[in-house]
């Protein structure tokens, strides 16, 4: 939902199209960029129905502009994925499914989940992954507080701090000690901060996985 992660999506999608098709090819894409301050207000207020209506409206505009596949560039707002799917006939590529499939393909069964407080504490994302046969662990409460705070006070503003990278590494190590075989970077902005070398277990970068899966789907024909 922040333009910081939207820009990363746009870059990754175009890089993947160029890699697949070569030459001067780039992605045929329609981008609906929302005002993240409005979305954050709805999140904080628990106004999920309002948020679902807002994103459903964006989906209708995307379809009218010619989109044939929708990619919702956020983990947290998949809480309202159903509202989007109900609003338009074109498919939504669900980020939880893409991520779970990548974890299963890696042969793992238990993963840690980092994300906003909404993603870590509510069941819409964890249950989606559990539906693929995965066990999902979340950080302890104090760790969840720090993970959430760093996202909203730093990463969505484009601030990448070494002390925050070290804090995330501590949280990841704690999840690994509890049995996580991998860790899902379940907020699109986290990839701005956490690198593979910051984790003792494999990381699953949801933005990159989602962007790649979108290109796979779009070019399947």
From TrEMBL:
Which protein is depicted? Aspartate racemase
One Pfam family this chain carries? Asp_Glu_race
Q: Is Membrane there in the keyword field? A: no
What is the superkingdom listed in this entry's lineage?
Answer: Bacteria
Keywords attached to this Swiss-Prot or TrEMBL record, sorted alphabetically, are:
Isomerase
Q: What is its EC number?
A: 5.1.1.13
User: Can you name the source organism?
Assistant: Nocardiopsis composta
Gene Ontology MF annotations: aspartate racemase activity
SUPFAM superfamilies per UniProt: Aspartate/glutamate racemase (SSF53681)
Q: Which InterPro entries match?
A: Asp/Glu/hydantoin_racemase, Asp/Glu_race, Asp/Glu_racemase_AS_1, Asp_race
For the protein in the UniProt heading, the enzyme class is isomerase
Q: Give the UniProt family note.
A: Belongs to the aspartate/glutamate racemases family.
């Amino acid at each position: 939902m922040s333009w910081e992660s939207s820009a990363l999506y746009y870059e990754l999608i175009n890089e993947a199209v160029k890699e697949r098709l070569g030459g001067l090819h780039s992605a045929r894409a329609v981008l609906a960029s929302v005002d993240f301050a409005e979305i954050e207000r709805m999140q904080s207020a628990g106004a999920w129905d309002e948020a679902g209506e807002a994103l459903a409206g964006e989906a209708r505009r995307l379809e009218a502009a010619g989109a044939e596949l929708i990619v919702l560039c956020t983990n947290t707002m998949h809480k309202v994925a159903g509202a989007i799917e109900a609003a338009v006939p074109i498919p939504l590529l669900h980020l939880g499914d893409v991520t779970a499939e990548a974890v299963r393909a890696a042969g793992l069964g238990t993963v840690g989940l980092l994300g906003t407080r909404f993603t870590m504490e509510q069941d819409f994302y964890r249950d989606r992954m559990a539906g693929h046969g995965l066990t999902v662990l979340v950080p302890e409460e104090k760790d969840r507080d720090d993970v959430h705070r760093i996202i909203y006070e730093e990463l969505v503003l484009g601030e990448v701090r070494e002390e925050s990278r070290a804090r995330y590494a501590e949280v990841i190590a704690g999840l690994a000690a509890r049995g996580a075989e991998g860790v899902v970077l379940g907020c699109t902005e986290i990839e701005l901060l956490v690198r593979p070398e910051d984790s003792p277990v494999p990381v699953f970068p949801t933005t990159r996985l989602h962007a790649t899966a979108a290109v796979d789907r779009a070019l399947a024909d």
